Structures are given as structure tokens and as C-alpha cells.
Amino acid sequence: MTRPTLTQATGPAHTRILGLGGVRGENLVPNDDLVGPIDSSDEWIRQRTGIVTRSRAGAGTDVLDLAEAAARQALDHAGLTGADIDAVIVSTVTYFHQTPAAAAIIADRIGATPAAAFDISAACAGYCYGIGQADALVRSGAARNVLVIGAEKMSEFVDPADRTISFLLGDGAGAVVIGPSDTPGIGPTVWGSDGSQAQAIRQTHSWIATRDEAAGWPTLRQEGQSVFKWAVWQMAPVAQKALDAAGITADELDAFIPHQANNRIIDQMVKTLKLPDSVVVARDIVDTGNTSAASIPLATERLLREGQVSSGALALQIGFGAGLVYAAQVVVLP
Ligand SMILES: CC(C)(COP(=O)(O)OP(=O)(O)OC[C@H]1O[C@@H](n2cnc3c(N)ncnc32)[C@H](O)[C@@H]1OP(=O)(O)O)[C@@H](O)C(=O)NCCC(=O)NCCS
User: Where is region (ACP-binding) located (predicted)?
Assistant: First the structure.
């Protein structure tokens, strides 16, 4: 007896970002509010990072609220409703429940049930990881429209006395809807990890230690210099690979939207990639700080809102962070 042949799904040949939204924590916290416990100064933080303020959410706003607000904007921008969404992916490292996933709750809040829903943990690379997955889900036929959200309330994991990372961090969420397209709108994702450097950016201790050893609430730490060097020297080649894979040259780009970690990292990447002056470089870090998975969509939202780039612009985006993990792709902006 011959075995029956399975039907395997296939989807449309191309995908693009159909709509985008972003919300920032409602409080703009200036450097001077943070420098006391870390023996720092407004001048030092501006010079070394570019940050002037970071957006932080108040006690009444949580990760889900930020994610939902960004998701609703992205749906509106795409001209879709929750009912049009087949899968919801939330990238976050600051959601306060191990389970269930934030994505399932967001799917319910926006009326996307019974959409597939799951969270991913890829820190500051999480948005680009999500775009790569959404692109693959649509083109495989597993979903028609996918909502990707990067949402973080980093301020919940801040130790005010820590000089390694806390002063960089902000809160916010960015979201996009990925769906079918007549023309290519998302280039190949170049991604990877290096777990041998897991200690470089980390949670101070595990939940088990919090429970058994009364170690207290965990916060974030980083080995700033190692991360800085890794980002500067190893991420530009990843971004270049994403350009090459998309068949795009630097002078054909309209915008460069790297993870908003440090203005000096961005400067060096621009130099290494030999981006011409015509390429608009996202600098949302100056006001918003580092919002991890939310940083690239928020920086994109600003460029579009301020008219620095227009719909249809070609942007190179790259996320990198705790893991260490990274992902980059060229996208057409909605
Ligand atoms: C954190 C970071 C801003 C520190 O800047 P840096 O230039 O590397 O600082 P260094 O650790 O080399 O320290 C330089 C000096 O500043 C001091 N310093 C360090 N942190 C400081 C702070 N928060 N405020 C004031 N002074 C500080 C150090 O004590 C040192 O002083 P010394 O020269 O007298 O010894 C920088 O390393 C960075 O941005 N790293 C990558 C961050 C990142 O991208 N993280 C997230 C990835 S997702």
C-alpha cells in the first residue's frame, strides 16, 4: 500500500511591514535625576552615550499596557483589526510572568483570538528576531498577517546604584504588522548568537536565588567595555551581510536604524559600513534611552513621524544584546 502524500502549506512569495506603532514611557527622566547614586554627571552620560533623557513608564503602566498601545497603533496604521491577525509574537525580557506568554494576553486584548501567540527572549535583538520569524511564517503559509511587538519596562530591573547599565535604560513598546506583499519588503535575516558571552549582559541572579537565598529582586548588569567592543567590531560585519543578502549597497539605503544602545556605537558602525551622508541615521537614544526590544521600532516610528524618511524608504536595521544575540535585515518602511 502506498502511503498518502502530505499537503505542505506555502504562502506568498513576498512580505512587507504593513503598519507600525510605538509608545514610550510617559516620563522623560533627565540624567541629573540619576547621577547621584552612581557618582556620574550629565556631561559624562551625554559624552559617553549620547543620552540626554530616557523615557520611563509610571507605576500604573506595565509591559502589557505598552505592548497593547503599540499594537493598536500598528493595526490602525495597517488598516487592519485584531481579527486579521493570525499570530502574535511579543519580544520582551521584562514581562513579569514566566507563563502564560504576554503574547496570548495581547492577542486577547486586541481581539485577535484564536491567533497563535508566543513570546521570544532575544533581548535587544528581539524585534529583528521577530521580524525574521514573522516573514518566515507568512511566506510558509503558516500565517497571513503577523503582529510583532517589542515591549519592555526596563525600569523594573534597574538598580539605581549600578553604574554599568541602569542609567541607559528606558521603557516603551514598538509594534509592526507583517503581511503579504506584491514586491519584496523584508530582506533575508542574518542572525546568530554567542552564548559563551552570556555573562556580558545579565540578570544579577536567578529566580531560584531570589526565592531560596532571599537574594532580593534581580536587576541588570553588563560588562560595558566588552559589550561595546563586541558591538562596534562584530556587529558592523553582520549589518554588511544583511545588506549583501538583500542585494543592496550602502548608497541605495535611505535609513540606518541600529539598536539604540550608545551613540558612539552607532557612530562607529556608520563609519565601518561607510554609509554616505544621504543615509538618515536613527538617534532616538538621545531622548528615549535604550529600550531593548522596543528600541528599533521606536526609532523607526520617530523617523517616520518627524518626516526624516517617508513610506517606502529602504532601511537597514540591526539588533544586538544579551545572549549575546544579534539579527539584522533590510526592510521597506510602511
Ligand atoms: C556602559 C558604557 C557607557 C561605559 O562607557 P565606557 O566608555 O566603556 O566606560 P569605561 O567602563 O571604559 O570607564 C571609563 C571611565 O568612566 C568611569 N565610569 C564608568 N561608568 C560610569 C558612569 N556610569 N558614570 C560615570 N563614570 C563612569 C569609569 O570608572 C572609568 O573611569 P577611569 O577612567 O577614571 O578609570 C559603555 O561601555 C557602553 O555603552 N557599553 C555598551 C552598552 C550597550 O550597548 N549595552 C547594551 C547592549 S544591548
Answer: 260-264
Rounded to two decimals, what is the model's pTM? Answer: 0.96
Residue written as cell 503559509?
A: 141
Q: Are 313 and 248 in contact (CB under 8 A)?
A: no
Please pick, among 31, 145, 262, 290, the residue that the annotation labels catalytic.
290
Q: Residue with the nearest Cα to atom 12 of ligand 1?
A: 225
Q: Please, what sign has the CA dihedral across residues 289, 290, 295, 300?
A: positive
Model confidence pLDDT, tens digit, residues 198-215: 999 999 999 999 989 888
**How far, in Å, is the centroid of ligand 1 from the Cα of 38?**
11
Q: Is the CB of 225 under 6 A from ligand 1?
A: yes
Burial of 247 (0-12, 13-18, 19+ CB in 10 A): exposed
- Any ligand 1 atom below 6 A from CB of 31: no
Kind of pairing between the strands at 314-321 and 255-258: parallel
For residue 288, CA distances in Å to 170, 172, 275, 334 come to: 6, 9, 24, 22
Q: Into which CATH architecture does domain 14-181 fall?
A: 3-Layer(aba) Sandwich (3.40)
Q: Please name the fold of domain 190-332.
A: Peroxisomal Thiolase; Chain A, domain 1 (3.40.47)
Please report the atom of ligand 1 found closest to the CA of residue 167.
23
